[in-house]
Amino acid sequence: MNEKKLTSASGIPYTDHEDTKGVGPRGPLLLEDFILHEKLAHFNRERIPERIVHAKGSGAFGTFTVTHDITKYTKAKLFSEVGKQTRILFRFSTVAGERGSADTERDPRGFAMKYYTEDGNWDLVGNNTPIFFIKDAKKFPDFIHTQKRDPFTNCKSATAVWDFWSLCPESLHQVLFVMSDRGTPVGYRHMHGYGSHTFSLINNENEKVWVKFHLRTEQGIKNFTGAEANQMKSVDSDFAQRDLLEAIEKGAFPRWKMYIQVMTLEEAKTHPFNPFDVTKTWSQQAFPLIEVGVAELNENADNYFAQIEQAAFAPAHIVDGIGFSPDKMLQGRILGYTDAQRYRLGANYEQIPVNRCPFAVNNYQRDGHMRVDGNGGRSANYYPNSFSDVRPDMSYVRPADQLDSNVADWFDRNGEGENDHYSQPGIFFREVLDQTGKEHLIENITSAMSGISGPKREEIINRQLCHFFRADISLGMGVAKGLGMDVASLMDKMPRG
């Protein structure tokens, strides 16, 4: 077997990997030992900044196969014909915890998807819930601050969490999802995924429809109870990572069927609530699921850091035939995610192999930290120019959007027509959860709210209970009793109307 020479990062062979050059066996070290510098300097930089959110995650590669024709809705090449396959990378994650946190924490699960298409990489960056806590991206930093560590105690704060949620009634729908057993899925293979936001599809005639993406697990839904999730933290804090990796290694490849819901532009105009509100779902009776294809994960990363930790996803990355919507959270994420990746990985993060489009990439971007693709060589770095053959392809022009208003203002997220925060949470409690699920939800909420402390404790609890009562009386009663509250007194304090 031919042995490989040990070299520095610049390819210079060296021999003393374990011993530093010094003055005698007991003397000081010499500054000239550059291998010492290289090893320590690289070691100090081995940890890139972890993601602000979704820091703890797992991922794998696979294929997406089209099984049903949706070309009447979209000209996106990955959906161009039945049987077409596209390479994919999926990354799953918890949201609030650091990289060393447990996989079974009560939390939404990130469900980020990268499709390596011939028209560029399409990133569908969603969660295992079809909704979210807030509907305006301006509130996102505040929300995440409540999920992270308190600036005084450096511990997680139930007071901050429930104070924020109680002051943001639009959070109630997602709060019920997360506090139910859906907030503690059994790994990543046994949960659904959602694009969550409303997107648009454009066909070859430039006709547009609004769309929501669903991925439904073929492994079946499985959730831990709160007690089981807490027990697993002490048994295996990396449970979900191990479960996904070992399943794929054994050939038990996890699969999800992709579906879409479609709403026409006219239907959106007359819909009883804002269809671009990410705190709400679309009725599957009114807008039935349309099957599209199957995603299968069948290849583990050879190196976690290179292929999963450095993987960068951004909702801004859409391809021809797929578009955005007026969803305010989506609009904010278009900016926020790409900016986060440039901070975390550098301006040229899309040149990292796992993020690089495997097809042609031509532009006039130059320089920047860690430019590794030749930097355009001698070619012109400006446009228009008389020398380069890189030109816009006008066949990719997107159709103009018809806006419903010419008024620019700060619109109240809880204004008239936007303020029904209780109907869907009530339906979720009454019609989606079975009796056991309802009991677990109330137990989980009671346990979580018991951690509220401080002089505002009663105020925060009463405010949140008002939201629960508005969604469903029995939900509010159950939580109030679990917290040992005087239910009769609470009912007297409830706002009427």
TrEMBL record:
Entry keywords, A to Z: Heme, Hydrogen peroxide, Iron, Metal-binding, Oxidoreductase, Peroxidase
SMART domains linked to this entry: Catalase
Cellular-component GO terms for this entry: cytoplasm
Catalytic activity: 2 H2O2 = O2 + 2 H2O
Enzyme Commission (EC) number: 1.11.1.6
CDD domains: catalase_clade_3
GO BP annotations, alphabetical order: hydrogen peroxide catabolic process; response to hydrogen peroxide
Cofactors required: heme
GO molecular function: catalase activity; heme binding; metal ion binding
Region (Disordered): 1-23
Official protein name in the record: catalase
